Amino acid sequence: MKSIGFIGLGTMGAPMAMNLLKKGYSLTIYNRTTAKANELINLGAEVVSSASRVAKVVDVLFTNVSDDQALLDVFYGVDGILEGIHPGLTVIDCSTVSPETSRKIAQELAVHYADFLDAPVTGSKPAAESGSLVFMVGGDQEVFTDQAELFAALGSKSLYMGPSGSGSYAKLAHNTIVGINSAALAEGVALAVKAGLDPAQFLEIVQSGGANSKQAELKATKILERDFSNQFSLKLMLKDLLLASKLSQDFKFPSPLLNAATNLYQIGLSKGFGDQDLSAIIQCYEDWMHEEVKKRPTQPNFDRKVSEAESNRRRNNRVPMNISLQLSVYQWEQEGSFSGQNIKGVLYDLSENGLQIASSFPLAKEMFIVIHFPQEADLPPITGKIIRIEPKTNEFRYGCMLSGLPPYVRIKLEEYIDVKRAEADLD
């Protein structure tokens, strides 16, 4: 088995290194801040005092640092990688840097009969922890193929993009879209809140319509709960957008959306949000409209008042209505990627908090599902959250809380269920 080195144990590097250890690889590490290496040492990693020492003793060396200058320093600085280079070494750089820097290092290593792959990733900290990153790789294709097992150990997919620098080009183009989408999400949400709309309800509309994006799916909860803990920092997004802006200048073509997003993140950095998650850009709009975007107190799922007699009837009359449902279940894989499947279910009952659904398919608490009613109901897809699970002999019954429904949909849903209940009672 190949011996592996890892330099750069930050937000992404540390969980990547941990996954290599868990897969049984021998790992030698170096980080300027030695305290970040303690957990890896406890798992069996060997820590050394310089980048050159890592390079001397491993077959493959991963680097994952913050920017171009940090990468150049770790290669060319005192006790840098180049001082420990040896023929046959492969360096895989997962940093997001300029294609120019990637090509420069690749050419330098080739002189020493060593190989270099620029292999930035998509997927933030959770994907690094779960081993579900996606690698976009530039360099020699044969070298890429030789390292396939390592990419598989760390990610769910690796794509060969072309010669040296191609991985870096792909990452900057990708993050241009991410940055613009995130900025658009913040601006749209701010506009809705300023108009007096419930942000949770509005974001549910976004995720159900043409405005949806992976950023909306990944960042909506962080915005509503004002959780700006770092998964991918605002300052790193700005760094990537500035690199992309330089590329557009080099290519001599206009990039108005990129320029607007870059300006917005520069404002965010100037306001002190740089070390927070990129979703913190919403705070710029909050400053401008003098209002916070946050989750509002939970409202009852059905606005119409229910009489005590009717409420008791609903609690006591647990007659299955046999309304067939299609449930869409989505699972997070990595930043920018979800997987999903459709399963069958039956509407069992209406509760004060939402719906009770029966299905033979096992689901988990806190999971969100999209409920599709029969065509006769004339209801849009409705999002629900699993809050209670009651195992039965051949099925599970799920308490499903609904939120953010427009009043007319709430009324229409309740009326439809009352009709179906009456039909069940007659039978």
Automatic annotation (TrEMBL):
InterPro entries: 3-OH-isobutyrate_DH-rel_CS, 6-PGluconate_DH-like_C_sf, 6PGD_dom2, 6PGDH_NADP-bd, HIBADH-like_NADP-bd, HIBADH-related_NP60_sf, NAD(P)-bd_dom_sf, PilZ_domain. Residues 3-162 form the 6-phosphogluconate dehydrogenase NADP-binding domain. GO terms for molecular function: cyclic-di-GMP binding; NAD binding; NADP binding; oxidoreductase activity. Residues 312-417 form the PilZ domain. Residues 165-284 form the 3-hydroxyisobutyrate dehydrogenase-like NAD-binding domain. Pfam families: NAD_binding_11, NAD_binding_2, PilZ. It comes from the Bacteria. GO terms for biological process: organic acid catabolic process. This is Tartronate semialdehyde reductase.
